Amino acid sequence: MGLFDRLRGRRPAKPSADGRRGTLDRASGRADLDHLEQFVATRRGVEGYVEPRTAVTETTIVLVAGDGEWTRRRIDGPETARKLSRDLGVPVYDAQVTGYPQRMRDWSARQR
Known about the structure:
Layout: H1 3-8, H2 30-41, E1 47-51, E2 60-64, E3 70-74, H3 78-88, E4 92-94, H4 95-98, H5 102-111
Parallel strand pairs: 1-4
Antiparallel strand pairs: 1-2, 2-3
């Protein structure tokens, strides 16, 4: 436990049943999966980018459509993201390795 945690009265996160420490984020739910499925069903050229779990957030997947529109949702881990991508028929990449497509940044810039 760090000094600032002691001052704030916080205790370190305890490992969960699977041995992982908790995050400050909520877990993924059915609504997250429904949103991802709807995104793929209503857009063309969708690709998935898996983002790793951190101390603050759970594993997430970013879906990027052919026009650059994107959405991000929590997912129960990289294996679930890959299975979901297979089930939905979209390619999936590791965001730490490939980065994000330029069309995603272009779309975000147009939305400002």
